[in-house]
Design brief:
alpha/beta; Rossmann fold; 2 domains; 7-stranded parallel sheet; 6-stranded mixed sheet; 15 helices; elongated
Protein backbone atom coordinates (compact mmCIF):
# COMPACT_ATOMS: atom_id res chain seq x y z
CA UNK A 1 0.00 0.00 0.00
CA UNK A 2 1.34 3.42 -0.90
CA UNK A 3 0.03 6.90 -0.32
CA UNK A 4 0.94 10.26 -1.76
CA UNK A 5 -0.68 13.58 -0.94
CA UNK A 6 -1.66 15.80 -3.83
CA UNK A 7 -0.77 19.31 -2.71
CA UNK A 8 -2.99 21.58 -4.78
CA UNK A 9 -2.32 25.30 -4.97
CA UNK A 10 -5.47 26.51 -6.72
CA UNK A 11 -8.22 28.72 -5.35
CA UNK A 12 -10.36 27.51 -2.51
CA UNK A 13 -14.13 27.17 -2.72
CA UNK A 14 -15.91 30.29 -1.62
CA UNK A 15 -16.83 30.11 2.04
CA UNK A 16 -14.66 27.13 2.87
CA UNK A 17 -11.73 29.05 4.36
CA UNK A 18 -8.99 26.49 4.79
CA UNK A 19 -9.18 23.78 2.17
CA UNK A 20 -10.82 20.51 3.14
CA UNK A 21 -8.48 17.55 3.52
CA UNK A 22 -9.75 14.19 2.35
CA UNK A 23 -8.34 10.68 2.22
CA UNK A 24 -9.30 8.69 -0.91
CA UNK A 25 -8.75 4.99 -1.56
CA UNK A 26 -8.31 3.47 -5.02
CA UNK A 27 -8.94 -0.26 -5.46
CA UNK A 28 -9.28 -2.64 -8.39
CA UNK A 29 -8.45 -2.17 -12.04
CA UNK A 30 -4.94 -2.15 -13.45
CA UNK A 31 -2.04 -0.07 -12.20
CA UNK A 32 -2.24 2.10 -15.32
CA UNK A 33 -5.95 2.75 -14.69
CA UNK A 34 -5.28 3.77 -11.08
CA UNK A 35 -2.52 6.11 -12.28
CA UNK A 36 -5.00 7.67 -14.72
CA UNK A 37 -7.44 8.28 -11.86
CA UNK A 38 -4.72 9.88 -9.75
CA UNK A 39 -3.82 12.19 -12.62
CA UNK A 40 -7.47 13.18 -13.04
CA UNK A 41 -7.79 13.96 -9.35
CA UNK A 42 -4.61 16.03 -9.49
CA UNK A 43 -6.59 18.69 -11.38
CA UNK A 44 -8.84 19.25 -8.37
CA UNK A 45 -7.62 22.25 -6.36
CA UNK A 46 -10.60 22.86 -4.09
CA UNK A 47 -9.84 19.89 -1.81
CA UNK A 48 -6.48 18.71 -0.50
CA UNK A 49 -6.38 15.01 -1.30
CA UNK A 50 -4.37 12.12 0.02
CA UNK A 51 -4.61 9.19 -2.37
CA UNK A 52 -4.11 5.67 -1.05
CA UNK A 53 -3.48 2.96 -3.66
CA UNK A 54 -5.08 -0.21 -2.28
CA UNK A 55 -4.01 -2.31 -5.27
CA UNK A 56 -6.14 -4.69 -7.27
CA UNK A 57 -7.16 -6.87 -4.31
CA UNK A 58 -10.36 -6.68 -2.27
CA UNK A 59 -10.01 -3.54 -0.08
CA UNK A 60 -9.99 -3.96 3.70
CA UNK A 61 -10.83 -0.63 5.30
CA UNK A 62 -10.16 -1.86 8.83
CA UNK A 63 -6.53 -1.05 8.07
CA UNK A 64 -7.34 2.54 7.14
CA UNK A 65 -10.45 3.96 8.86
CA UNK A 66 -9.73 7.52 7.71
CA UNK A 67 -10.65 6.83 4.07
CA UNK A 68 -13.72 8.98 3.32
CA UNK A 69 -14.18 8.02 -0.34
CA UNK A 70 -13.41 4.61 -1.85
CA UNK A 71 -13.18 4.35 -5.64
CA UNK A 72 -13.67 0.82 -6.96
CA UNK A 73 -12.42 0.37 -10.53
CA UNK A 74 -14.69 -2.27 -12.05
CA UNK A 75 -14.21 -4.57 -15.05
CA UNK A 76 -17.37 -5.01 -17.12
CA UNK A 77 -16.33 -8.57 -17.96
CA UNK A 78 -16.56 -9.51 -14.27
CA UNK A 79 -19.90 -7.92 -13.43
CA UNK A 80 -21.19 -11.11 -11.80
CA UNK A 81 -18.49 -10.58 -9.15
CA UNK A 82 -19.38 -6.94 -8.48
CA UNK A 83 -21.67 -7.57 -5.46
CA UNK A 84 -18.83 -9.37 -3.70
CA UNK A 85 -16.55 -6.40 -4.39
CA UNK A 86 -18.85 -4.21 -2.32
CA UNK A 87 -18.82 -6.54 0.71
CA UNK A 88 -16.02 -4.53 2.31
CA UNK A 89 -14.80 -5.09 5.88
CA UNK A 90 -14.77 -1.71 7.56
CA UNK A 91 -13.87 -0.26 10.95
CA UNK A 92 -16.22 1.00 13.61
CA UNK A 93 -17.48 4.38 12.50
CA UNK A 94 -18.96 5.87 9.35
CA UNK A 95 -18.53 4.08 6.05
CA UNK A 96 -16.82 5.91 3.20
CA UNK A 97 -18.73 6.99 0.13
CA UNK A 98 -18.22 4.13 -2.34
CA UNK A 99 -17.94 5.18 -5.98
CA UNK A 100 -17.81 2.72 -8.88
CA UNK A 101 -15.60 3.74 -11.81
CA UNK A 102 -16.44 2.24 -15.20
CA UNK A 103 -14.68 2.56 -18.57
CA UNK A 104 -18.09 2.27 -20.23
CA UNK A 105 -20.93 4.20 -18.52
CA UNK A 106 -23.76 2.46 -20.36
CA UNK A 107 -27.18 2.45 -18.72
CA UNK A 108 -26.99 -1.31 -18.18
CA UNK A 109 -23.61 -1.15 -16.39
CA UNK A 110 -24.65 1.85 -14.27
CA UNK A 111 -27.72 -0.05 -13.07
CA UNK A 112 -25.61 -3.13 -12.30
CA UNK A 113 -23.09 -1.10 -10.28
CA UNK A 114 -25.80 0.63 -8.25
CA UNK A 115 -27.54 -2.67 -7.56
CA UNK A 116 -24.23 -4.13 -6.43
CA UNK A 117 -23.91 -1.42 -3.78
CA UNK A 118 -22.28 1.67 -5.33
CA UNK A 119 -23.31 5.08 -3.96
CA UNK A 120 -22.40 6.74 -7.26
CA UNK A 121 -20.92 5.87 -10.67
CA UNK A 122 -18.21 7.84 -12.45
CA UNK A 123 -16.34 7.38 -15.72
CA UNK A 124 -12.84 5.94 -15.90
CA UNK A 125 -10.93 8.20 -15.64
CA UNK A 126 -13.44 10.57 -14.01
CA UNK A 127 -14.20 14.05 -15.31
CA UNK A 128 -12.86 16.63 -12.81
CA UNK A 129 -16.29 18.18 -12.20
CA UNK A 130 -17.85 14.76 -11.49
CA UNK A 131 -14.99 13.81 -9.20
CA UNK A 132 -15.25 17.12 -7.31
CA UNK A 133 -18.97 16.60 -6.76
CA UNK A 134 -18.36 13.13 -5.30
CA UNK A 135 -15.48 14.36 -3.14
CA UNK A 136 -17.56 17.20 -1.69
CA UNK A 137 -20.35 14.76 -0.84
CA UNK A 138 -17.87 12.40 0.83
CA UNK A 139 -16.38 15.25 2.83
CA UNK A 140 -19.77 16.47 4.01
CA UNK A 141 -20.90 12.94 4.93
CA UNK A 142 -17.78 12.36 7.01
CA UNK A 143 -18.01 15.78 8.68
CA UNK A 144 -21.62 15.28 9.70
CA UNK A 145 -21.07 11.69 10.83
CA UNK A 146 -18.23 12.76 13.12
CA UNK A 147 -19.98 15.85 14.46
CA UNK A 148 -20.04 15.58 18.29
CA UNK A 149 -22.90 16.38 20.60
CA UNK A 150 -25.78 14.84 18.66
CA UNK A 151 -27.99 13.06 21.19
CA UNK A 152 -31.10 11.15 20.21
CA UNK A 153 -34.06 9.39 21.77
CA UNK A 154 -35.64 6.76 19.55
CA UNK A 155 -38.75 4.78 20.48
CA UNK A 156 -39.94 1.55 18.87
CA UNK A 157 -43.51 0.33 18.99
CA UNK A 158 -45.84 -2.18 17.33
CA UNK A 159 -49.37 -2.52 18.65
CA UNK A 160 -49.93 -5.82 16.84
CA UNK A 161 -47.12 -7.44 18.84
CA UNK A 162 -44.78 -10.21 17.80
CA UNK A 163 -43.27 -8.19 14.94
CA UNK A 164 -39.71 -8.06 16.29
CA UNK A 165 -39.64 -4.61 17.89
CA UNK A 166 -37.63 -5.85 20.87
CA UNK A 167 -35.08 -7.67 18.70
CA UNK A 168 -34.64 -4.54 16.58
CA UNK A 169 -34.18 -2.44 19.72
CA UNK A 170 -31.31 -4.67 20.83
CA UNK A 171 -29.79 -4.81 17.33
CA UNK A 172 -29.87 -1.03 17.01
CA UNK A 173 -28.28 -0.72 20.44
CA UNK A 174 -25.32 -2.83 19.38
CA UNK A 175 -25.12 -1.10 15.99
CA UNK A 176 -24.86 2.31 17.67
CA UNK A 177 -21.84 1.00 19.57
CA UNK A 178 -20.29 -0.89 16.66
CA UNK A 179 -20.62 1.82 13.98
CA UNK A 180 -20.43 5.10 15.87
CA UNK A 181 -19.13 4.17 19.33
CA UNK A 182 -22.19 5.86 20.83
CA UNK A 183 -22.91 5.54 24.53
CA UNK A 184 -26.25 3.79 24.25
CA UNK A 185 -29.00 2.94 26.72
CA UNK A 186 -31.96 0.64 26.18
CA UNK A 187 -35.21 1.15 28.10
CA UNK A 188 -37.62 -1.78 28.44
CA UNK A 189 -41.17 -0.42 28.63
CA UNK A 190 -42.70 -3.73 27.56
CA UNK A 191 -43.18 -4.03 31.31
CA UNK A 192 -45.01 -7.32 31.61
CA UNK A 193 -43.07 -9.36 29.04
CA UNK A 194 -39.66 -7.78 29.85
CA UNK A 195 -38.03 -9.07 26.62
CA UNK A 196 -34.84 -6.98 26.54
CA UNK A 197 -33.13 -8.67 29.49
CA UNK A 198 -33.90 -12.04 27.88
CA UNK A 199 -32.46 -11.00 24.52
CA UNK A 200 -29.37 -9.58 26.23
CA UNK A 201 -29.05 -12.73 28.38
CA UNK A 202 -28.81 -10.79 31.65
CA UNK A 203 -30.68 -10.91 34.96
CA UNK A 204 -30.80 -7.30 36.18
CA UNK A 205 -30.67 -6.71 39.91
CA UNK A 206 -32.52 -3.41 39.52
CA UNK A 207 -35.22 -2.04 37.26
CA UNK A 208 -37.21 1.05 36.44
CA UNK A 209 -39.51 0.17 39.37
CA UNK A 210 -36.66 1.17 41.71
CA UNK A 211 -37.18 4.76 40.56
CA UNK A 212 -40.79 4.86 41.70
CA UNK A 213 -40.19 6.61 45.03
CA UNK A 214 -41.84 10.02 44.48
CA UNK A 215 -40.01 11.62 47.40
CA UNK A 216 -36.60 11.35 45.71
CA UNK A 217 -35.86 13.16 42.44
CA UNK A 218 -34.58 11.06 39.55
CA UNK A 219 -31.06 12.22 38.80
CA UNK A 220 -27.96 10.71 37.23
CA UNK A 221 -26.84 9.20 40.56
CA UNK A 222 -30.11 7.29 41.04
CA UNK A 223 -30.18 6.16 37.42
CA UNK A 224 -26.57 5.05 37.55
CA UNK A 225 -27.47 2.78 40.45
CA UNK A 226 -30.32 0.99 38.64
CA UNK A 227 -28.97 0.74 35.08
CA UNK A 228 -27.48 -2.62 34.13
CA UNK A 229 -24.08 -2.27 32.41
CA UNK A 230 -22.90 -4.74 29.77
CA UNK A 231 -19.25 -5.33 28.99
CA UNK A 232 -19.49 -4.88 25.22
CA UNK A 233 -23.01 -3.69 24.58
CA UNK A 234 -25.54 -1.01 25.49
CA UNK A 235 -26.70 -0.30 29.03
CA UNK A 236 -30.18 -1.43 30.08
CA UNK A 237 -32.89 0.15 32.20
CA UNK A 238 -34.81 -3.06 32.72
CA UNK A 239 -38.48 -3.79 33.22
CA UNK A 240 -39.55 -4.95 36.71
CA UNK A 241 -38.65 -8.54 37.60
CA UNK A 242 -42.20 -9.27 38.79
CA UNK A 243 -45.36 -8.45 36.86
CA UNK A 244 -47.13 -6.99 39.89
CA UNK A 245 -44.32 -4.42 40.24
CA UNK A 246 -45.24 -2.91 36.87
CA UNK A 247 -48.05 -1.08 38.67
CA UNK A 248 -45.37 1.04 40.36
CA UNK A 249 -44.20 2.56 37.08
CA UNK A 250 -46.03 5.79 36.30
CA UNK A 251 -45.72 8.14 33.34
CA UNK A 252 -43.98 10.79 35.45
CA UNK A 253 -41.28 8.27 36.40
CA UNK A 254 -40.78 7.28 32.76
CA UNK A 255 -40.58 10.88 31.59
CA UNK A 256 -38.03 11.85 34.24
CA UNK A 257 -35.93 8.76 33.51
CA UNK A 258 -35.89 9.42 29.76
CA UNK A 259 -34.77 13.02 30.24
CA UNK A 260 -31.92 12.08 32.56
CA UNK A 261 -30.83 9.21 30.30
CA UNK A 262 -30.77 11.69 27.41
CA UNK A 263 -28.21 13.70 29.35
CA UNK A 264 -26.16 10.65 30.35
CA UNK A 265 -26.05 8.81 27.00
CA UNK A 266 -25.61 9.65 23.33
CA UNK A 267 -28.53 7.48 22.23
CA UNK A 268 -31.55 6.20 24.15
CA UNK A 269 -33.62 3.41 22.55
CA UNK A 270 -37.01 2.70 24.12
CA UNK A 271 -38.91 -0.52 23.48
CA UNK A 272 -42.51 0.56 24.03
CA UNK A 273 -43.93 -2.90 23.46
CA UNK A 274 -47.45 -3.40 22.09
CA UNK A 275 -49.56 -1.99 24.93
CA UNK A 276 -50.14 1.75 24.67
CA UNK A 277 -50.42 3.75 27.87
CA UNK A 278 -49.82 7.22 29.25
CA UNK A 279 -46.15 6.27 29.57
CA UNK A 280 -46.05 5.46 25.84
CA UNK A 281 -47.39 8.90 24.98
CA UNK A 282 -44.77 10.53 27.22
CA UNK A 283 -42.03 8.62 25.39
CA UNK A 284 -43.40 9.60 21.98
CA UNK A 285 -43.40 13.24 23.04
CA UNK A 286 -39.74 13.03 24.04
CA UNK A 287 -38.53 11.02 21.03
CA UNK A 288 -36.56 12.32 18.07
CA UNK A 289 -37.65 9.24 16.12
CA UNK A 290 -40.67 7.00 16.52
CA UNK A 291 -40.21 3.73 14.63
CA UNK A 292 -43.35 1.72 14.00
CA UNK A 293 -42.52 -1.95 13.37
CA UNK A 294 -44.71 -4.14 11.17
CA UNK A 295 -44.43 -7.06 8.79
CA UNK A 296 -46.13 -7.87 5.50
CA UNK A 297 -49.31 -9.30 6.99
CA UNK A 298 -52.78 -7.83 6.65
CA UNK A 299 -53.27 -7.89 10.43
CA UNK A 300 -50.06 -5.92 11.00
CA UNK A 301 -51.02 -3.30 8.40
CA UNK A 302 -54.49 -2.92 9.88
CA UNK A 303 -53.04 -2.53 13.38
CA UNK A 304 -50.67 0.12 12.04
CA UNK A 305 -53.64 2.02 10.61
CA UNK A 306 -55.29 2.02 14.04
CA UNK A 307 -52.07 3.24 15.66
CA UNK A 308 -51.61 6.05 13.14
CA UNK A 309 -55.23 7.16 13.65
CA UNK A 310 -54.58 7.42 17.38
CA UNK A 311 -51.21 9.11 16.93
CA UNK A 312 -52.67 11.75 14.61
CA UNK A 313 -55.58 12.40 16.98
CA UNK A 314 -53.15 13.05 19.84
CA UNK A 315 -51.48 15.84 17.87
CA UNK A 316 -48.12 15.10 19.48
CA UNK A 317 -45.72 16.39 16.83
CA UNK A 318 -45.66 17.64 13.28
CA UNK A 319 -43.51 14.67 12.21
CA UNK A 320 -44.95 11.26 11.45
CA UNK A 321 -43.76 7.85 12.70
CA UNK A 322 -41.24 6.03 10.52
CA UNK A 323 -42.36 2.66 9.15
CA UNK A 324 -39.93 -0.25 9.51
CA UNK A 325 -40.94 -3.42 7.67
CA UNK A 326 -39.34 -6.28 9.57
CA UNK A 327 -38.89 -9.81 8.20
CA UNK A 328 -39.19 -8.39 4.71
CA UNK A 329 -39.53 -10.80 1.78
CA UNK A 330 -39.74 -9.56 -1.79
CA UNK A 331 -42.11 -12.36 -2.86
CA UNK A 332 -44.78 -11.71 -0.20
CA UNK A 333 -48.34 -11.04 -1.38
CA UNK A 334 -48.41 -7.76 0.58
CA UNK A 335 -45.84 -5.51 -1.11
CA UNK A 336 -44.09 -2.39 0.14
CA UNK A 337 -46.10 -0.31 -2.29
CA UNK A 338 -49.37 -1.64 -0.91
CA UNK A 339 -48.23 -0.91 2.65
CA UNK A 340 -47.32 2.66 1.71
CA UNK A 341 -50.66 3.14 -0.05
CA UNK A 342 -52.65 1.75 2.89
CA UNK A 343 -50.82 3.79 5.53
CA UNK A 344 -50.15 6.95 3.49
CA UNK A 345 -46.54 6.90 4.64
CA UNK A 346 -43.30 5.84 2.96
CA UNK A 347 -41.44 2.81 4.24
CA UNK A 348 -38.38 4.18 6.03
CA UNK A 349 -36.39 0.93 6.05
CA UNK A 350 -36.69 -2.82 5.69
CA UNK A 351 -35.02 -5.65 7.60
CA UNK A 352 -34.88 -8.92 5.64
CA UNK A 353 -36.37 -12.17 6.89
CA UNK A 354 -33.66 -14.33 8.45
CA UNK A 355 -35.20 -16.68 10.96
CA UNK A 356 -31.96 -18.56 11.61
CA UNK A 357 -30.01 -15.43 12.53
CA UNK A 358 -32.64 -14.06 14.92
CA UNK A 359 -33.20 -17.50 16.48
CA UNK A 360 -29.48 -17.83 17.17
CA UNK A 361 -29.43 -14.32 18.64
CA UNK A 362 -32.37 -15.11 20.94
CA UNK A 363 -31.15 -18.53 22.10
CA UNK A 364 -27.47 -17.69 22.61
CA UNK A 365 -27.56 -14.04 23.71
CA UNK A 366 -25.05 -13.21 20.96
CA UNK A 367 -25.40 -10.08 18.84
CA UNK A 368 -25.57 -9.95 15.05
CA UNK A 369 -21.94 -8.86 14.82
CA UNK A 370 -20.77 -12.19 16.24
CA UNK A 371 -23.11 -14.34 14.11
CA UNK A 372 -21.38 -15.16 10.84
CA UNK A 373 -24.55 -16.05 8.94
CA UNK A 374 -26.32 -12.75 9.66
CA UNK A 375 -24.65 -10.63 6.97
CA UNK A 376 -27.83 -9.46 5.20
CA UNK A 377 -29.68 -8.59 8.42
CA UNK A 378 -26.57 -6.93 9.83
CA UNK A 379 -26.18 -4.74 6.74
CA UNK A 380 -29.82 -3.61 6.88
CA UNK A 381 -29.51 -2.75 10.59
CA UNK A 382 -26.32 -0.80 9.89
CA UNK A 383 -28.06 1.15 7.10
CA UNK A 384 -30.98 1.95 9.42
CA UNK A 385 -28.54 3.07 12.13
CA UNK A 386 -26.83 5.48 9.74
CA UNK A 387 -30.21 6.91 8.77
CA UNK A 388 -30.99 7.63 12.40
CA UNK A 389 -27.58 9.06 13.29
CA UNK A 390 -26.76 11.03 10.12
CA UNK A 391 -30.04 11.81 8.30
CA UNK A 392 -28.61 14.92 6.63
CA UNK A 393 -25.74 12.91 5.20
CA UNK A 394 -28.14 10.47 3.62
CA UNK A 395 -29.97 13.29 1.91
CA UNK A 396 -26.67 14.35 0.41
CA UNK A 397 -25.95 10.82 -0.73
CA UNK A 398 -28.83 10.69 -3.23
CA UNK A 399 -26.92 11.87 -6.29
CA UNK A 400 -28.91 10.54 -9.17
CA UNK A 401 -32.17 9.13 -10.43
CA UNK A 402 -30.47 5.78 -10.99
CA UNK A 403 -29.40 5.56 -7.36
CA UNK A 404 -32.99 6.04 -6.21
CA UNK A 405 -34.48 3.68 -8.80
CA UNK A 406 -32.03 0.85 -8.58
CA UNK A 407 -30.52 1.01 -5.07
CA UNK A 408 -30.75 -2.37 -3.42
CA UNK A 409 -31.44 -1.00 0.07
CA UNK A 410 -33.96 1.52 1.34
Amino acid sequence: MSSAPLQGSGEELAGLGRRTRLRVGLAGGSESQRIAVREALAHIREIELEIVDLGDEQPVLQNDPKIALLALLLDAAERERWPARFQIPHPNGPLPLIVAMLPDRSSDLIQAALRAGADDVLGLPPAPEDALRALLRASEMRRRAERPGDKKVCSLVSVSGGRGASSLTVCLGFAMRQLFDKRTALVDLDLQAAPLSVLLDVEPEHSIADLADPTSPIDSIRLESVVTKLNSGPALLAAPRRIEHTELVFAATVEAAIKVLHDMFDVVLVDCGSHLSESSVVVFENSDYLLYILDQSVTAVRAAQRFLDLYNSLGLKEGQPHLIVNRYRSNEAVTLGQIETALHLPVFATVPFDEAAFKEMQTTGRDLWTISTAANVRRSIENLTRKLITPESLELSKPSLFSRLFGSNR
